[in-house]
Amino acid sequence: MEDQQTRSEARLAEAQRVAHVGSWEWDVGSNVVTWTDEMYRIYGIEPQEFDHTYEGFLRRVLPEDRDGTQNVVLEAYRARKPFVYDHRIVRPDGSVRMLHTRGDVIADDAGQALRLTGACWDVTELWQAARERERSISLLRATLESTADALLVVDQSGHVVAHNQRLLDLWKLPARSLEGSDFHALLASVHDQLVNGDACAQLARDLAANPGAETFDRLHFRDGHCFERYSRPQRLGDQIVGRVWSYRDVTERECLMRRAVFLADASRLLASLDAEAALDAVSKLAATFMDGVCTVDLSPSATRYAVGSSSRMIVPLTAHGQALGAITFVSSGDRKYDQADLVLVGELAHRIELALENAQLYRGAKEALGARDEFLAVAAHEIRGPITSLHLAVQSLAKAPPELTARLTAIIEREDHRLARLVEQLLDITQLRSGKLRFVYEPVDLAEVTRDVVDQLAGDLSRSRSTLSITAPGTLIGSWDRTRLEQVVSNLLSNAIRFGMGKPIELRLTRDGNQATLVISDHGIGIAPQEQERIFKPFERAVPPRQYGGLGLGLYVVRTILDAMGGSVHVDSQPGAGASFTVDIPLARTG
Amino acid sequence: MSARTWIQVIDDDESVLEVVVLVLGQRGYQARTAADGVTALEQLRAGTPPSVILLDMRMPRLNGIDFIQALKADPALASIPVLILSGDPAAAETGLALGAVGFLRKPFELSDLVTRIETVLPRNSGIL
Lengths: 591, 128
Prior knowledge:
With 591 residues, chain A is an alpha+beta fold. Chain A is 46% helix and 24% strand. Chain A is built from 16 helices and 20 strands. Chain A has a five-stranded antiparallel sheet with strand order 2-1-5-4-3, with helices on both faces. Chain A has a five-stranded antiparallel sheet with strand order 7-6-10-9-8, with helices on both faces. In chain B, 41% of the residues lie in helices and 18% in strands. Chain B is built from five helices and five strands, in the order βαβαβαβαβα. Chain B has a five-stranded parallel sheet, with helices on both faces. The longest helix of chain B has 13 residues. The C terminus of chain B is likely disordered. Classes of the chains: A alpha+beta (591), B alpha/beta (128). Chains A and B meet through α11 and α12 of A and α1 and α5 of B.
């Protein structure tokens, strides 16, 4: 019998050693604690190192766990109820072990607690594994939440395993866990937020047939946001157990890209030399891009007001500090323009300004070229007249009867002179343009010069049917270049005859102090206000050259000569009411 | 020379007018001149129509093109042949398209002018 008990105890001890389980008993009355052998191994001590008291046990409990341990024990003792708890102990070598304890209270028939007894497992390895798992989960959670992307992990059965807060934000879902939700149902619930919802759902469905695939696509939200979506399978060893989806917000990047592309497109359109068409095309492009109406107004005081519009922007267009106009956007629908839009429109305005400036330079260059070409055509026409006459006269001369010979010879001489004069004029222009015109100053009677010019133009005057009234002193002497002065009077009077429409012409010459004033007025076609400065420029004229002959240089020559002699010329005219040219010229050069 | 056969010369260059009239006269043609299209139209509407019109293109008041259009629009004058004498081929081309019968580019040969005039004159209205 004793043998049997001994064998039984030995088996128990063996079982306890294998299972890391020890048993204990605390006789409360005598405060004696009894341990099985395994208990000593768990505590890392020899039996003689333990004083077998409750306090001796408590001293080996990790200080942080002591209060908890006492509370559990006292509560069990008072309530006379079984108890379970975990606590840590410190072995003499300093290592910490986690123990799992189950115990019960043994009471006498009167209900008086006599002793506590129980079993104790060393669960250190399990506890460490659990801690490791907690750490991993915490790391995963922290990683999930700290990444800039929205993340979603779905298992093979299509249920959500993990996700982060950003995903809820992305889908505009209430703050709750999606774990366990059906992935496809989730996609369906947010379908309407997407512009390309069908395609996105289809991609997710297609993966059923190809679970190992990695995917990439874009989600376009109706509110303008844009996300890039990546997915790859989640593997456990060789086995695919789910899929990780990540969503990256590329709205800002896309927005910058779209803006850059918009500006590039606008610049390309603005590179056209047809500024009007370019502005029209850019307005249309900008209106579409800005979801509204775009107006480019090229009046310096341009402003736009839109009653009831939800949002509008006005950016002035300037060049060299001067107002050119404005570009206006009025949003249609719900779009509200923001600071970024304003910056973009500022960029656009800058490009428009450059384009307008380019167009202006191009127009100026083209007009200058056009005026020069026109001048060459006119010069060719003017030269062709005398050449034609000369050509015909010379050919006729050989067979001409004697009575015509003299007349033909006179014509040849006259045309020869005319041609020479024209060539001289052209040379003059070359010199005028290069500032090399030479002046010979001598005492000249302007009244006499005027009379000479009138005589020279008598033929033209009579053909024009205009009458000429002259008011002039007998003499008006100054220090001038006679030939140049003749040119001034001749050019002005020729113009009056040519553009006078056969109506009376007045010439008035006066002396005012040290200055002579010549006014030549006609009552002909007149000059529009916007043409009055242009007519003094080379190759410019206010009338179509096909209707009025001449090189178109007369007034340019007049102004250039007068400038050189310290004088001036200005015009006073109304279209249809004739023109009055006033020349002021000092009697002697100063300076 | 037939009293009905005469030539209208229109040019704003009075020297050209003078020489053309002179050389035509040498060959027995009578000519009348006008320095611009408006004057020419007035003359044409007032008297016997000429057998041919020699027309410059670049002129004040009414240029050659406008003149031809006005001429063709007037039933009494529309059938008068117009020979363009001009240095401006582009304008001449427009004039030809509007119904002018020929074009001589200034400066032209006297013989060419005479040949062209004889070509466009009605057969029975020449000299003799």
